[in-house]
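Internal ticket #5521
Category: modeling
Description: The requester needs a full-assembly model to guide mutagenesis choices. All entity lines are attached below as received. Residue total reported by intake: 963.
Assigned to: D.W.
Attached entities:
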Amino acid sequence: MAAPKKGRKAPGGQGRPGRTLALMLVVMAALVGGMFWSGETTPRLGIDLAGGTTITLKAEAEPGKESAVNETNMNTAVGIIERRVNGLGVSEAEVQTQGRENIIVNIPKGTNSEQAQKQVGTTARLYFRPVLNVLPAGPETPEPSGSPSASPSGSPSASPSGEPGEQATDGKDTATAPSGSPTTQGRAVTGALKAPSPSPSGAASGQPESSQSPAPTPTPSGTATGSALEQQFAALNCLDPKARANAGKDAQPEQPTVACGTNSIGGWEKYLLGPAEVDGRDVDDAKGVLDPQRGIWIVQMDFTSEGAKKFAKITGKLSQQPSPMNQFAIVLDGEVVSAPQVNQTLSANAEISGNFDQQSAQDLGNILSYGALPLSFNVETVTTVTPALGDEQLKAGLIAGAIGLALVVVYLVVYYRGLSLVALLSLLVSGILTYSLMSLLGPAIGFALNLPAVCGAIVAIGITADSFIVYFERIRDEIREGRTLRPAVERAWPRARRTILVSDFVSFLAAAVLFVVTVGKVQGFAFTLGLTTLLDVVVVFFFTKPLMTILARTKFFASGHPWSGLDPKRLGAKPPLRRSRRVSAPVDPKEA
Amino acid sequence: MSRLGNLGARLYRGEVGYDFVGKRKLWYGISILITITAIVGLAVRGLNMGIEFKGGAVFTTPKTSVSVAQAQEYAEEATGHPAIVQKLGNDTLRIQVSELDTGEANQVGRQLAEDMDIPAGTINAELVGPSWGAQIANKAWTGLGVFMILVVIYLAIAFEWRMAVAALVALIHDITITVGVYALVGFEVTPGTVIGLLTILGYSLYDTVVVFDSLKEGTKDITKQTRWTYGEIANRSINSTLVRSINTTVVALLPVAGLLFIGGGFLGAGMLNDISLSLFVGLAAGAYSSIFIATPLVADLKEREPAIKALKKRVLAKREAAAGRGESAEDGDVEHHGRPQDARQGEATAAGAVVGQRGRGRGRPSPGRRR
């Protein structure tokens, strides 16, 4: 036997296990190196494990609406704040009401608490702004693509004035001027009046009403702001989450602004928007309903009487414009949630139709109603909190987990003997990869490791180990067939590989669906599960298999040493079908 | 290892085998019994929803030197519910307990003040709303629904619809049992529990798919032979992956058992109990159902198919004829455990060549099937 260490590679294409293994180690070293280099040597811990900051908010009703501080509104506010603090990903903040008029927000350590404070402290700002220009999210390529579209029972407005190119320029002009120049706005409003509109007010009285806070600021700065805005618009990249979050965050309602939003197929688009014409408080009620006649989901809006006037004005004006300027954007917290086209003048109640399903129609309905929330919040206190899971509990948990893991090691060693080395090394590699990726991704996507995520990781031990076990059992079956180790390792692989891929796919599917559909803690858990499942496949393919191939060449394993876990005799191998010798005798690899 | 390894070898060769499929009525019965118990438990006792879902009372103490653990003990004693205690930045404590109304909260506040030796009335008691809103829970349910639909589609494509149905039944079985155990034990349901349940959903299917993969391989050319019925081959498939199933289950359960029994039992890690219990029950149920429920169910469904029915008839007829001719009991041994040793060689060749159970590298899957 005397297995030749090198040189004689089996002719069957088993790749270059050494190279794969080396590559894997390099990747691992790079990840660990990156972890130390970036200084993120520990995963960010969730609020239940590490504590964080707690912010207490006190609700204040607007004068004259004291009854607004009630349970329904408070719960709605919790929904909005939750949306905001968890909006960017899996930061896992907790939001709950306390007492009658307080909301507490718990934010995990490591989150920028000042920013968070700013986020939660402000009321939801909902505005309806005319769309001046729409572009795809990234770089240029002007193409005012398929936007949400189509408003009710269309009498397509007839104003074929000029060709699109000119109109775009017009749009820019309006963008440049409106912040200050009353003339432009005046013209716009006059334009609206031409439409068959129930709107009673004349051009003169219309103007102050139309921009929601009457601030016809002096003209001079107007142009400067405008061109700066133009540049900002050109530079805006909505594919970048950070830029997206900042776009239009601090926009004043009476100023034009830029913003990002998704279109009906979920792609990002950037918008250049005019001054707000109607704001959230003008919406009386909104809900997503199924239109029984057309069988589609629409959003119905009811305006207050004042809001109805304003809305009639903006829609009357917009319906005269060519696309894309006949859209109004519904902007919540600086993000365009929808930008329907307007085909006719609308007043007290309007409906938005488009590519809605039940979920998106109801979501938009909620958002529109939220904007009408007559509450504002003041930050009462900001203070640190210790983890909800006490120190001692955590320690107990860690000890218990360690004992459990030790038992796993013992079991594997007893059962698989030499092979357990492969299993344990693979588990170790997988652990290192998981840990370093979690640490690196912490800041990148706001991932925080919390107790549920830890549980996901613990279960992942089982799923990861299962891949090895499936493979080992296949190898052993091949040996029982009377094969020697090297062909057994190669023959077992394709079948084990299929099982591993098919089953890991199911697990990954679970993780992906949960990640997409859910929020907060569940999302964090789904992320852990998905990550570990992917890593399981990576480890098995690029570590376990090559390692097994290499080990199969060593004397210890190939000869079926009793401690290798691959002793044909112990495995009960039967004599090779078409061979005369028993396998338990040292095997000549040439025979394979 | 040697004993189990030996067992593995004998299982592999079919020398020993446990008749999972033949006794399926028994397993179905057991499962139905457990499931009914779970449902009754759920209906009678209901689930004990935690503060994250229902809200509760929060007590804020003035500056105090009482430790977090101590405060937790007091609070749990005073209310009988698990308490979440956090220390705030200014050395005050925030104690949250579920299921208290205003009256009870005030009483508990006084009790706590007494226990902690601080002036009564300085403890502030207020009701808190849920931090895990209906919205999050709803989204979790939506996710569950979407996932189930996708999985059924995937399994129907990768395997076949019968297996998809069986896997789904097994999944619902596992989740019902786990939820039922929660109702019966009376542990509070926390977000951790929900997440534990979601984990089970992934794992239960994962485990089922591994067994199905072997079943699919075993039954590839089933209609081209007349030796075994579908049910028997399904049984063999389970047996040949049995060692894998046992090992995987042990490896997956050990860390969770560590958390549950050592962590929760001896060291008293309250919050960990919720998660580890749901994981433990769910993982165990998942491992059980893939062998005892899912696969026999597939065999049941499959044997309704005309081709497979005809096969069964042929196989039985052949056995009868063989028995009539007074041949060895080998072929007629429906249960096929404890098959005579001398028949081994022939059996192996037959199974290997006809059923394709041993696939000698030629049974490579078509690439389309992978992912």
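Resolution: model delivered.
Comment from assignee: The longest strand of chain A covers residues 126-136.
Ticket closed.
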